[in-house]
Amino acid sequence: MSALPSRPLRRVVITSVSTVAGGLLLLSLKPHSTAGAAPLTTAPAPTATSSGPAGSSGAATAPPTGGGSTSGTRTVDGDAVQTRYGPVQLRVTVTGGRLTAVTAVQLPQSNPRDEEISSFAVPQLTQEVLAAQSARVDTVSGATYTSEGYLRSLQSALDKAGG
Amino acid sequence: MTVTTPPRPAAARHSAAARPGRRSPAAAVLALCWAGAAAVVALWWKDTGPVVGPAGWLIGGGRIAGLLTGYSCALLIGLMARIPALEAGVGSDRVARWHAMAGRYTICLLTAHAVLILWGYAVQAHTPVVGESWTVATTYPDMLKGTVGGLLLLTVGVLSVRAVRRRIGYETWYHLHLLTYLAVFLAFWHQLALGADLRGGGAGRAYWYGLYGSAAAAVLWFRLLVPLRTNLRHGLRVRAVVQEAPGVVSVVIGGRRLPELAARPGQFLRWRFLTPGLWWTSSPYSLSAAPRPDLLRITVKAVGGHSAALARLAPGTRIWAEGPYGALTADRRTRQKVLLLAGGVGVTPLRALFEALPARPGDLTLIYRARSAADLALRGELESIAHARGARLHLAVNSPDGRRPRLSVEGLRAALPDIAQHDVYVCGPPGLLRESYEALRAAGVPAGRIHHESFEL
């Protein structure tokens, strides 16, 4: 049979300290940047230029190859932006220099609440940015983090599309 | 109560002593508990991506702590479910100590979980921790319940600290402790709603359902249905109350079909006497004699209001009993020779073993220590048993100036020159237990052959 009960406090301290050490070890073994884990943007570097209202920052940039067509349709993936609830990554479609579609590649979905938030915030944001033709719209209340991620990913996609 | 061992045929009784004692499943149970915790951590590892920035570390740590808290809550409940393999195999006292140990650990984990998660969220959102905590508690799904559950668990934890528990008294502590079930129930839902590893139909969710399902089923079965069946079947009632020594009474209990109860010498039951003032409290008392086909007996010393009230029990009083529990039985024995070491009213389970342990004349010794000759409860019947079985009985009382006879290596060796060849059963107050444990080890008795039951947490 076991030895006599002894020093419960010391034992619980030892176990707790071991747990802390183990937790830190596990956390330190995980990668510490999203670079490797976030899906890389697969869109090729833009060769054609687009200008006009779609490229909020690209508008000022001189086209690298002159006389590009503005009527082509291009699809560009934005950055995967980390939010509290998970990564947000968007794919934008630019047709004839106009932002015509925004679809989600990744949205926070680590729990039912995240999905709920995405389900009301994302359609609303998409509607607003399509109307405004830019990422300069207000965040959706109650979905601040998802909105911020959405708009930052959108901006990065527009930057790329704008060249 | 399920029957754990069939009664051995009488012919096999003497050879039984030579058989090695049944191995305690304690090591296997502990290994299983730790393996379960490792599986929880593996679940986190599988589901977790990069850990980025201070918030990532804080939230990561908080999630590990949270998963382990959820796991250990289920374990805490399972350990106290009175599962026969644990009660009679590992020993009720040891399981209770595991539960206490795991409880303290759970409180640490729970605190770490709440602090790290809230801190991590606040860092990530660039908001103050207090406001963030309020948001999480009030707006996150099932977090209002989760917060109440967590606070209840912390309260129960604080009430269980030795100093506090002593102050509030056993009964209050015990009944408040039952709030743990409510706390764990309330906290369960936020784990499913928010636990990143438990959502959806994945392995995590299945594991959690299995874990909590088993714990709930064990409680329902072993703490509610089995006692219900026991009491309906046996209809226990007080038959007589006998004064044994100053402040020590024996309660003789009658009932139907008692052999089916399968209570064994050395075991105890939790007794609830259904009479005004006593019905709301359930106390563990050892059987102080080997069970008879229609009678059980306990012997109790008045140390509190409850045990004192037993002296006034009227014959015919109905009893609700749970058990039998306890591992201080003949199963522990590995040797031919046995020493029983009793202090005060701790003699009760050893009295039953003294009567029932299979032994040849000369193989069985009882050392019984008490404050004074008057306090040597059950002395007469111990002497009769010793005489009838050819067993040795040593009685020791304090000297007139109040000094206790010390249990020394020399004293033990003088009484039993081959003490190292004995199995030793010890039962008594914590002081005696510690003193005799040290003396026995020094006299060459291996720790594995010192059998004791101590409900000191």
TrEMBL record, chain A:
Low complexity compositional bias, start-end: 38-64
One Pfam family per UniProt: FMN_bind
Region listing for Disordered, in residue ranges: 38-82
Limits of the FMN-binding domain: 84-161
Membrane-crossing residue ranges in chain numbering: none
Protein name: FMN-binding protein
Organism per entry: Actinacidiphila polyblastidii
Automatic annotation (TrEMBL), chain B:
Keywords recorded for this protein, A-Z: 2Fe-2S, FAD, Flavoprotein, Iron, Iron-sulfur, Membrane, Metal-binding, Oxidoreductase, Transmembrane, Transmembrane helix
Record's keyword annotation contains Phosphoprotein: no
Chief location: membrane
Transmembrane segments: 26-45, 57-81, 102-123, 143-161, 173-194, 206-226
Entry membrane topology: Multi-pass membrane protein
Domain FAD-binding FR-type: residue ranges: 231-331
PROSITE patterns: FAD_FR
UniProt name for this protein: Ferredoxin reductase family protein
Lineage of producing organism: Bacteria, Bacillati, Actinomycetota, Actinomycetes, Kitasatosporales
